Amino acid sequence: MEMRQIQLTRQAIQDLRNLQSTGSLKVPERLFERLTETPDDSNFPNTIHFSGGGCADHWRSRLDLGGGSSLRLIWTLNQEDSSIRILYAAQRDDDTYSIDIRALPREPAYTWNGEKGIDWSFFLNGHYNYSPVMTQAQKSTSDQIGQHTAVSHYGENPRIGFFAHITQSPPGTGKTVTAALRACDLYGMGWNVLFLLPQSLLEEVKEFHCLQSIPSDMSQGFFYGTFQDWVKHASPESESSILSPDEELEILKRLAQRAEQSQASLNFQGIRQRDLILYQSFVLKQDSDQTKNSVYRENADRIEVLKRISPEWWDQACKDINKLSRSDIATRLCEQWEQTPVTLPSKDRGGITVIIDESQDYLLSELEAIKKLCRGWQKAGQPTYLWLLGDLNQRIMPVDFDWGALELVNVQEPDWKCFRNSKRILEFSNLFLAPASENARQNKARCPYQPTEADYAYKTGEKVKLIKYPSPLEAEVFLEKLCQSLGRKTKAIEASKSLIYKLVSRIKVLYAETYQSKYNDQLEFLNVHEVKGREFDTSVVFNAFKTTTPEPTSEDWWQWYTLLTRTRSRLVIV
Asked: Each residue of 416-435: b (16+ CB within 10 Å) or e?
């Protein structure tokens, strides 16, 4: 007998979680086993079909829990794949008569994969995020990836070509989810797939249920990892010669000291990581017009100072230790892949799709190298597709990348609803893009893309709470009280990895760059680089609004916007 897939909306998951927390519903997962069978009158004697009023595909079922208690479910049936999507769950019979059936949201939804016992508890309390289902809007966009070719898996002649697609979408609209699910779909359809994403997101994506059965092995046609992982895979001989970011920073600091010694009036006032990015983006590469790049225009004064560090010095310093910097690697790969592209991983598969998430944080030269790789595969007779996803409003490092600089196609901004942030969080976080737009206008640069409208949020949510202390030291009192309320006075709970620990650990403390606290071993502190692309139910943004300049830069506003939009429902700012 064919088993139906069970999906639950976030509304239904919240309903079931509330019932479970009261102890009135301990094993509801067993009840879903009957729903997976083909429904008929004998299997569902207590099922009513709604009709008319826009509810023709809605059903209501009553499942006995024993002891005179019953569970009410409202669900829909997908005629295409026969899946059942549960929209609402309640124990009181009269609840299902008083609600507006048409107002129940159908998205976002998550697949139940048969979790039981403690796994069911984990599923309800966050693990459902690893079994997402694409929304209709996301599916409409992702279906365009790969549609230009008919792959050999189906015995048809593929149309040879190189196709590119760019998706610019605000935070919380599901870029990573859509990319991961489409990557799995394409692999199942017979494509080779190369899926590149940041390290912080990689650990999250590895937990996706759809990826559990696919090995990250390019010899079998599927690879997912960071750009650096791919470089090491494609050019194994270069692994030992790649400079780490810390090594690069030390080189730039030494060269800055050399420049100061040779020019009496020069004072760099310290070299930081962002200086390294500016140097590699705008000083080492000076053969492109950056006059419309908002990052360049806003940092023009600092870039002019960094130009006093000769690029010849940089090249020589790298040669002296026989290593390559981030920008050097991109340039070399661009030249190498243009002449001799990497061999297609699995020739039994028809063509290759390259998917790059969070592409706004790449150096332009790195993306140019990927373009050369794709065109090399295309010239070798393989249909090749490149899909770039990102959001320039979440660019947290001053790189030279800009959508237009890629010279591919027009950027598409799909009409995806925000399923992460509540309306209240969007209303607050969107305020932080207005100053960035003003900075762009003053510098005659491109203005930021429009964020998600607050009315596009999945739910209204709680108001953002702001707690202000007279000093940073006194603000630590909040952290002390937070630790006490979480009840984590010893390492015993953490070491046991129990359900209680997993629930407590969902509260994150977010900050801008670096923050040291005596509570670091009790709370999970994450900076803006570590939370990029991730999301949390509850977050505390702690002492984050600091600047190194008299007035905040666009980069500051973008980083704060990125921090604020990590949270789904409960956001506290200290």
From this structure: bbbbbbbbbbbbbbbebbeb
Euclidean distance between CA atoms 497 and 520, whole angstroms: 18
Please tell me the distance from the alpha carbon of residue 16 to that of residue 8, in angstroms, as a whole number. 10
**Strands of 58-150, DSSP E:** 58-66, 69-77, 84-90, 109-112, 132-133
Q: Which of 230, 266, 479, 251 is nearest to 367 (CA)?
A: 230
Does pTM surpass 0.90? no
Q: What is the pLDDT of residue 176?
A: 94
| Cβ 72 vs Cβ 91: under 8 Å | yes
Q: How far apart are CA 8 and CA 74, in angstroms?
A: 11
Q: Are 169 and 413 in contact (CB under 8 A)?
A: yes
Q: What is the pLDDT of residue 2?
A: 59
d(C-alpha 398, C-alpha 415), whole Å:
27
The pLDDT, as a whole number, for residue 142 is 92
pLDDT at 41: 41
CA distances for 177 relative to 87, 243, 361, 368, 383, angstroms: 21, 32, 18, 25, 24
CA atoms within 13 A on the CB side of 476: 9
HSE, CB side, 13 Å, CA atoms: give it for residue 503: 13
Q: Is the omega angle on the peptide bond into residue 108 within 30 degrees of 0, that is, cis?
A: yes
DSSP, residue by residue, 160-183: P-EEEEEEE--TTS-HHHHHHHHH
Q: What is the pLDDT of residue 347?
A: 67
Return d(Cα 170, Cα 153) in angstroms, integer.
Answer: 35
Strand partners, 84: 6, 77
Those residues of the chain that have pLDDT short of 50 are 1, 40-42, 149-158, 489-490, 492-503
> Parallel, antiparallel, or unpaired for β 162-168 and 384-390?
parallel
314 CB burial (10 A radius; 0-12, 13-18, 19+):
buried
Q: Tell me the C-alpha distance between 287 and 407, whole Å.
A: 15
Q: How high is the pLDDT of residue 81?
A: 78
| Residue 240 identity (one-letter amino acid) | S
User: Which residue in 498, 569, 511, 521 sits closest to 545, CA to CA?
Assistant: 511
